[in-house]
Amino acid sequence: MNRQDIRRQMRARRRYLTPAQQRQASDGLRVQLYQAREFRRAKSVALYLANDGEISPSRTIEALWQRGVKVCLPVLHPVYRGRLVFIRFDRNSAMKPNRYGILEPVYRHQLAVSVRFLDVIALPLVAFDETGNRLGMGGGYYDRSLAFTRRSGKRPFLIGCAHECQQSKQLPAEPWDIPLNAIATDSRYQPVK
Ligand SMILES: Nc1ncnc2c1ncn2[C@@H]1O[C@H](COP(=O)(O)OP(=O)(O)OP(=O)(O)O)[C@@H](O)[C@H]1O
Ligand SMILES: [Mg+2]
């Protein structure tokens, strides 16, 4: 199967999950993320709002807020097309849908956190394999925004998040694909490499 076929299959699988399964998965994801030392120690964490059946970090975000951890969400970069900028997210953040219809915090320069200063990024996966290769939705947004990590010393710890049913045997990796440090699902936390 090529990348597009795998994406189609995995997106259909996750959209098929019931609201009850999604709620349970969101709870499970919180438990699994807290297994990671990097996550427990993090002072700033970027996550995302679930879309298209993605496993939802909403329960994790509530837990982080309660502990006073700085939470950020990705926002389409207002200037550099194809890139993300990470914006501080609080209970009362002003939100608006982006051009994919995904809610994001309203961009304000003072609320932007440089990706270099994020301790952990929990990023959504369409598919993953056991060696940490990932497939996203196909926009290349995370790959572009994280390309600097190939050279940089200080880099965020990358945890890919997905439902267990999104694991693939072996994914084809392209030269620009940024590999994950760990995978978290509804029922598992697994460091890679
Ligand atoms: N660092 C980069 N510089 C320029 N173009 C890039 C870079 N990374 C990815 N791209 C482009 O983005 C397109 C989509 O990439 P890919 O199929 O890996 O998406 P993805 O990993 O599923 O998406 P995402 O990173 O948003 O989750 C590719 O055609 C690729 O050319
Ligand atoms: Mg990629």
Quick structural gist:
The protein has 193 residues and is α/β, with parallel strands linked by helices.
- Quickly give the structural class: alpha/beta
Share of β-strand residues: 15-25%
- Beta strands, count: 12
The major beta sheet can be summarized as: 8 strands, mixed
Mean pLDDT: 96
N- and C-termini, Cα separation: 25 Å
In CATH, the homologous superfamily goes by the name: NagB/RpiA/CoA transferase-like
Q: Which class in CATH terms? A: Alpha Beta
Question: How many distinct domains?
Answer: 1
How is the largest sheet built, in terms of strand order? 6-3-2-1-7-10-11-12
Q: Can you put this structure into words, describing what you see?
A:
With 193 residues, the protein is an alpha/beta fold. The chain has a single domain, classed as Rossmann fold (3-Layer(aba) Sandwich). It is 24% helix and 22% strand. An 8-stranded mixed sheet has the order 6-3-2-1-7-10-11-12. The protein has a two-stranded antiparallel sheet with strand order 4-5. A hairpin with a 4-residue loop joins strand 11 (182-184) and strand 12 (189-191). It is globular. It starts with a helix and ends with a strand. Adenosine-5'-triphosphate is lined by residues 135-144, 147, 174, 176-177. Residues 135-144, 147, 174, 176-177 line the site of adenosine-5'-triphosphate.
